[in-house]
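Before surveying the methods themselves, let us examine one representative protein, pairing a chain with its fold in token form.
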Amino acid sequence: MENALVEMMSNFIDLTHEEKQGIVEAFPIKTYPKGTILLKEGQIAKDAFSVIKGCIREFTNEDGNENTTNFYTEFQSAVNFDSMANSKPSKCYFMCTEETTVAILNAEKENALYKKFPRFGEVCRVEMEKMLGASQEELAVFKNATPKDRYLNVLKNRPELIERVPQYQLASYLGIKPETLSRIRRRIVTRD
């Protein structure tokens, strides 16, 4: 079986044998059990995590309350850009909500790979721009939406989350209480 990250990158460019080997050596693939914390608040992020299989939850802890800010599933990357780029302590956590297999992307190894294979830098830049554009769009929609519209957006664009994450985490992600989410779900079901 070919390395999953090599398979993903092969969707963007044709890779030589040497390039494939460079990816395998630079970005190890590891499987973590449910509940594993990949990044803690206060820790300086050294790695990013490209999800191959599973789910990572991003959350903050404010006065003992966990506030879910994102979920990363297959073919998405969990990255704390502010912490990694500026060597600042992280303000959030990354935790596996289920058994999760990731490619571990280390900034130093990534930069060395770009020097060895310059065209990777361009491919990664383009994919990064797409990812940031999607995040900006998602935030704009979220900020201007009602709780019901937020839920319908998740139902339309990320339906796998409905079955994969606990309701209280989904409610936190939507910025509402679990009871409110229950009411919204009941109303939608009774209308169908």
Remarks:
- Residues 119-143 form the longest helix (25 residues).
- The radius of gyration is 18 Å.
- The longest strand covers residues 65-72.
